[in-house]
Design brief:
Blueprint (H helix, E strand, L loop, with lengths): L6 H30 L6 H8 L3 H7 L3 H24 L5 H18 L1 H9 L15 H22 L8 H21 L6 H15 L6
Helix pairs in contact: 1-2, 1-4, 1-6, 4-5, 4-7, 5-7, 5-9, 7-8, 8-9
């Protein structure tokens, strides 16, 4: 006779299935948002791309805005973790910024649909205030801006950045990322991403007042 499943086992299976469906739907939405933009993306197409029914999509998300917020929150958590993993042992605050920038370029290159949907918005990543961005996207931009501004504050305090307020230094970093990554996409992503990262780092060595290497 088969041993009956415990209630905790059944709950674990249900949680795993729920997580799997949410991940499928978020990944499908990320693709659809990158192709058509948020406004024109249709829930039916998200369901089709995810390989699930429209009812299943609505079972896990209230609508497009809910999926959009979940996507931005998930990717931003991954983004912060990727930068932290690369910079946690770097002692120089300025070097940590530059190492972090390289990690950020590589992160966006590894998530091209996420990059594209932000480019599609046509807004400045360095101005995450007021009505800029949409829903969870605003929180994602603020998180990135605050993270880099804190790093710039440490570099200013250490005397590695002079003549710039931390907020301006942070905005320069974010703007450089947007300019170079948008150019990379526009040109068909043919330039090796390592070369793109090198170019951004060289630019920031100069714009942040450091001696270029």
């Amino acid at each position: 006779m088969a041993t009956p499943r415990s209630s905790s086992t059944v709950a674990d299976i249900a949680d795993a299935r729920r997580t799997m469906y949410r991940q499928q739907i978020v990944a499908a939405a990320e693709y659809e948002f990158s192709q058509t933009g948020f406004t024109d993306a249709r829930m039916s197409e998200i369901a089709k791309t995810a390989g699930v029914s429209l009812a299943t999509v609505y079972k896990h998300f209230a609508g497009k805005d809910d999926i959009w917020d979940a996507l931005n929150a998930e990717r931003m958590q991954e983004f912060v973790s990727a930068v932290h993993a690369r910079t946690e042992t770097v002692e120089s605050p300025l070097e940590a910024i530059l190492v972090g920038v390289r990690a950020e370029v590589e992160f966006f290159a590894a998530h091209p649909h996420f990059l594209q949907l932000h480019i599609n918005e046509g807004l400045s990543w360095a101005s995450p205030s007021g009505d800029a961005g949409r829903g969870g996207q605003r929180a994602a931009w603020r998180t990135g801006m605050e993270m880099i501004t804190r790093a710039a504050e440490a570099a200013v305090k250490a005397g590695e950045i002079t003549g710039l307020r931390p907020e301006i230094a942070g905005a320069l970093v974010i703007s450089a990322l947007q300019v170079w990554l948008t150019d990379w996409v526009t040109r068909g992503k043919v330039t090796p991403i390592e070369a793109v990262a090198d170019a951004v780092v060289r630019h920031l060595h100069i714009s942040l007042g450091a001696t270029p290497t």
